[in-house]
Amino acid sequence: TEHVEVGHRLAKMTGLPFYAGGSVASEEILREGGKRSIIASVRAHHEGKNLQHAFNRNLILSFPADAKVVEQLVGRTHRPGQPKDEVEAFYYMHTSELRDAFEKAKERAEFLQKVTGSAQKMCSASFVKEEV
Fold first, then answer.
1. Is 98 helix (H, G, I), strand (E, B) or coil?
2. What 3-state class would DSSP assign to 90?
3. What string of H, E and C letters represents the secondary structure of 24-85?
4. Are 109 and 64 a contacting pair, CB within 8 Å?
5. Full-model pTM
6. In this predicted model, what pLDDT tens digit does every residue of 42-54 receive, in sequence order?
């Protein structure tokens, strides 16, 4: 989640751990074994964490429009050492602002890939729209 308040509320409602920022949270999230779901702050944990050992499914509550943040966010679980064949990222687009952020991130990823030649995960991903 991008919003700390949402993370705390979800943790209270679900009984799942919420990892906000800070060194203690960073150490604890890396010790997760994948036996349960977790709630994590996007800004605090989108970079520098190797979570492929424990997770292959992501529920993104507020999609960052910044393609670099998206690449890092999904990259926590989609990297060498991932034992699953696929990594899934679910995104709930219930407002026009969230849909626009998703489209902007895709456009920026395409631009980055074209300009830098560096493969972007959003450019190689399969997208499935499901109505809830």
1. helix
2. strand
3. HHHHHHHCCCCCCCCEECHHHHCCCCCCCCCCCEEEECCCCCCHHHHHHHHHCCCCCCCCCC
4. no
5. 0.76
6. 877 767 778 888 8
